[in-house]
Amino acid sequence: MRRFDYAAPTQIFEACALLADRGDDARALAGGTDLIVQMRERGRKVPLIVSLRNLEGFKGISQNADGALTIGAMASGNEVHHSPLVQKHAYFISEGAELLGSIQIRNRGTLGGNVGNAAPSADAAPPLVAAHATASIVGKQGTREVPVGDLMVGPGQLALEPGELIQSFTVPAQPAHTGTRYVRHVPRREMDIAVVGIAALVSLEDDLATIKEASVVLSAVAPTWPHATTAEQTLRGQQISEKLLADAGEAAAADSRPISDVRASAEYRRMMVDVYTRRALATAIERAKTAV
């Protein structure tokens, strides 16, 4: 590993100033489960590491007066996965967090880091997008709110200004009879990167037979974490049926933009988008029927 300077500021403005002033020579350190590996094994040069561990307002999980959840960007994968609040109000965020590597990795890796890496195959980000979560962004100019779905502009690229940091995520309260599910397809059962990931959120009418609202977000089959908008339109206002789920799966596959690589062909990925969209929606619907 190459030599680097290390800073652990206690004030947000100090961290933002360091990152802004050093530009591409500085990187924020959350859990370090990706950055340190890149520096140690791939020779990545990072002259300055700015640790976020001592900053106030970047940790914890809480529920606001309006029912929304606030999840600190420095909350670890295991904290998010095991949080009773997350499991009760946005279960698929817990499911995504559970897949962030081994237990040891989840104890170190953070929700903000998983989003901040801007990997198309991220597991924790798609549920946040499907839940219409927003990110609180802090920088030298103050704080702004950005939909998580607008954060990633391409592989490894975030819509952040120099010196800006993701401080927390706000997940809006969901209406009654809402169910969620995150599923992914991987060659191995554990410790692998998604070939296809699907985050599904479904809200039902009071009759529990009609879909009021649906959100389907894709992972690992596009340069970002896109909504399968055609699939969502197919579902809204429709009576639940096997045919409806089949139509939504086909629509999601058509909405995807996969590539062929060493992990899978584009054609295979489209097939898996179809299959896993149906599965995710079926489980989300069943959970919605018992949700209050």
Count of DSSP E strands? Answer: 13
Q: How big a fraction of the residues is strand?
A: 15-25%
Query: Reading side by side through the largest sheet, how are the strands ordered?
Result: 4-5-10-6-7
The mean pLDDT is 94
CATH topology name of the largest domain: Enolase-like, domain 1
Shape: globular
List unreliable stretches of 5+ residues: none
User: What is the domain tally?
Assistant: 3
Q: Tell me the Rg in angstroms.
A: 19 Å
In helices, the fraction of residues equals: 25-40%
List the helices and strands and how they pair.
Layout: E1 5-7, H1 12-22, E2 26-29, H2 35-41, E3 48-51, E4 61-63, E5 69-72, H3 77-82, H4 84-89, H5 91-98, H6 103-108, H7 111-116, H8 125-130, E6 134-139, E7 142-147, E8 152-154, E9 157-158, E10 165-171, E11 178-185, E12 196-204, E13 211-219, H9 229-235, H10 242-255, H11 266-290
Parallel strand pairs: 1-3, 2-3
Antiparallel strand pairs: 4-5, 5-10, 6-7, 6-10, 8-9, 11-12, 12-13
Helix pairs in contact: 9-10, 10-11
Could you explain the architecture of this structure?
- The protein has helices at residues 12-22, 35-41, 77-82, 84-89, 91-98, 103-108, 111-116, 125-130, 229-235, 242-255, 266-290; strands spanning 5-7, 26-29, 48-51, 61-63, 69-72, 134-139, 142-147, 152-154, 157-158, 165-171, 178-185, 196-204, 211-219.
- By secondary structure, the chain is an alpha+beta fold.
- It has three domains: 5-51, Uridine Diphospho-n-acetylenolpyruvylglucosamine Reductase, domain 2 (2-Layer Sandwich); 61-171, Uridine Diphospho-n-acetylenolpyruvylglucosamine Reductase, domain 3 (2-Layer Sandwich); 178-290, CO dehydrogenase flavoprotein, C-terminal domain (Enolase-like, domain 1), CATH 3.30.390.
- The strands form four sheets. It has a five-stranded antiparallel β-sheet with strand order 4-5-10-6-7. Strands 1-3-2 form a three-stranded parallel β-sheet, with helices on one face. A three-stranded antiparallel β-sheet has the order 11-12-13.
- The termini are far apart.
- The mean pLDDT is 94.
